[in-house]
Design brief:
By secondary structure, the chain is of the alpha/beta class. It folds into 3 domains: 172 residues, Dimethylsulfoxide Reductase, domain 2 (3-Layer(aba) Sandwich), CATH 3.40.228; 113 residues, Rossmann fold; 112 residues, Barwin-like endoglucanases (Beta Barrel). It is built from 20 helices and 19 strands. The protein has a 6-stranded mixed β-sheet. It has a 5-stranded parallel β-sheet with strand order 3-2-1-5-6, sandwiched between helices. Helix 3 links the parallel strand 2 and strand 3. It starts with 12 loop residues before the first strand and ends with a strand. 42% of the residues are buried.
Length: 525
């Protein structure tokens, strides 16, 4: 996030696209509802009628997978009507002419054909967002979980820069991260193509710093993205896996393919809290400690580094991850001398510029938002206030690319998924709580009444949903929350593994999969 969660109290208008924070990020969702109650405007772009959509000043019921066309259409109107922030664009950005040229063809009428959004509503939304005020864009995995995910993120940034909504309290571009420490994991270099601290692999002087600290030579080539592991197992490039804190046997797309890869892999180690579905494929299972059983830090979606403190001892042979890694590394011949989680953090702050001014002593008082360059720096609540990281903000316009797997005569409906508020991801933790099972006992397939009548579906009928990759059975919930032609369900139940259906096509840059849209056929069982 370029801004803070608390910034919502300053926001005059929210543009929510590709996210339903009521179920995915409920504390942020609550703040948005509070802001709307005090008078902030709300635009929700979502194919599904969520609670936020019903509360919105404008609910834009977009055709799934067409966000880039929609965003280009807004920029077309804003440029044609000269609503863009000319001072901000002139002083703080470059390659504006590229945007003007690309969005020229995205007329409201053309965008309506692609997105099904009425042209008049496009004008309304464009004028609302471009108007004077502190306007924030919030987006989530409904933007990034496509093969064009990076195109969508760049288009959001283009729109925010065009209207000068960056670098101010209550504004900015605010991606809502998928889990509690995704930001922290990425900060630490858990990406296939960056060093810790987001240093690139080409021409980076960070290599020398890391090699000196770790007394070893680092490879200059990118690693394998997690989403490409399975193909590399089948072609023989990968023969062993060490998986921790992840359950790809249920969480990855096209899980029949994933499960075959786990069976084929010569040696699999899983380090986790429970015997997950993935752990059942493992040759060795190492029991890890939960957040309440260890010390450390999390970095949340607003870049805030916060302490976690051990409350109880881990059960049995379970141990904190850092201890397992340290002892395993020592046995394999590379000595690590950490004696505490704080020792690990001290190394982090000595190497990462963003964390340099953060210490456990400071975190005892309050969490700090990076970058924190010095020990007397208060942290950075708003990014890009005076300049962007690269200097000037770069416009990178993108053409709309249709979904990878369009509907056809054999698979005539779209399938998409979202989160269940009561359950966390695939229930490896929350599924062990009986009360949660009472609140959310099963996943339902949401069917629009028009589709239900056409297909002869009645409430609570068992449905067989089939894609080109697999089949899952769910009971029907007939509701106008879902769009005509689209089936929606939650992905959190182990007895309804919807990722047998989902598509494992990948974004060309991030290598994130197209979780959010695939073609299916629906049959009453």
């Amino acid at each position: 996030m370029t801004n803070s969660i608390a910034d919502t109290k300053f926001t005059d208008l929210f543009l929510m696209i590709g996210s339903n924070p009521d179920t995915s990020h409920p504390t942020i969702g609550l703040r948005i509802h509070q802001a709307v109650e005090r008078g902030a405007k709300l635009i929700v772009v979502d194919p599904r009628k969520t609670r936020l959509a019903t509360d919105a000043d404008e609910w834009v019921r977009i055709q799934p997978g067409t966000d880039v066309a929609f965003l280009n259409g807004l920029m077309h109107i804003i440029i044609k009507e000269e609503l863009w922030d000319k001072k901000f664009v002139a002083e703080r950005t470059e390659d504006f002419d590229d945007v003007v040229k690309l969005v020229e063809k995205y007329t409201p009428e053309y965008v309506e054909e692609i997105t099904t959004i009425p042209a008049e509503q496009l004008y309304t939304v464009a004028r609302m967002y471009a108007a004077e005020g502190r306007h924030a864009i919030f987006h989530g995995m409904g933007i990034t979980h496509y093969v064009t995910g990076t195109d969508r993120v760049k288009s959001i940034a283009n729109l925010a820069m065009l209207c000068g909504k960056m670098g101010v309290e209550g504004g900015g571009c605010n991606p809502l991260r998928g889990q509690n420490n995704v930001q922290g994991a990425c900060d630490m270099g858990a990406l296939f193509n960056t060093l810790p601290g987001y240093a690139g692999l080409e021409g980076s002087d960070m290599f020398e710093r890391y090699e000196k600290a770790w007394k070893t030579k680092l490879p200059r080539r990118p690693g394998k993205p997690a989403t490409e592991v399975w193909e590399n197992i089948f072609n023989g490039s990968i023969r062993g896996l060490y998986i921790f804190g992840e359950d790809p046997a249920v969480a990855d797309p096209n899980i029949a393919h994933v499960q075959s890869g786990l069976e084929k892999c010569d040696f699999v180690v899983v380090q986790d809290l429970f015997l997950t579905e993935t752990a059942k494929y493992a040759d060795v299972v190492l029991p890890g400690a939960s957040f309440a059983e260890k010390d450390g830090t999390f970095t949340n979606t607003e870049r805030r580094v916060q302490r976690i403190r051990k409350a109880v001892n881990p059960p049995g042979e379970a141990r904190p991850d850092w201890q397992i890694f340290r002892d395993l590394s020592n046995k394999m011949g590379y000595e690590l001398r950490y004696e505490s989680a704080e020792d690990v953090f001290e190394e982090i702050r000595s190497l990462l510029p963003q964390y340099k001014g953060i210490s456990y002593a400071r975190l005892e008082e309050v969490g700090l938002q990076w970058p924190v360059p010095t020990e007397d720096h208060p942290g950075t609540s708003v990014l890009h206030t005076e300049s962007f990281t690269r200097g000037k903000g770069l416009f990178i316009p993108e053409e709309y690319i249709p979904p990878v797997e369009p509907t056809d005569a054999e698979y005539p409906m779209y399938f998409t998924t979202g989160r269940d508020l009561a359950r966390y991801n695939f229930s490896s933790m929350t599924g062990k709580t009986a009360e949660i099972a009472e609140i959310s006992p099963e996943a339902f397939a949401e069917v629009n009444p028009v589709d239900a009548e056409r297909l002869g579906i009645k409430e609570l009928d068992w449905l067989k949903l089939t894609s080109r990759r697999g089949t899952v059975k769910l009971r029907a919930n007939i509701t106008d929350r879902s769009q005509v032609g689209t089936i929606f369900t939650t992905y959190n139940h182990l007895d309804a593994l919807v990722n047998f259906l989902t598509l494992d096509a990948l974004d060309r840059l991030s290598r994130s999969p197209e979780y959010k849209l695939c073609a299916i056929k629906v049959e009453v069982v």
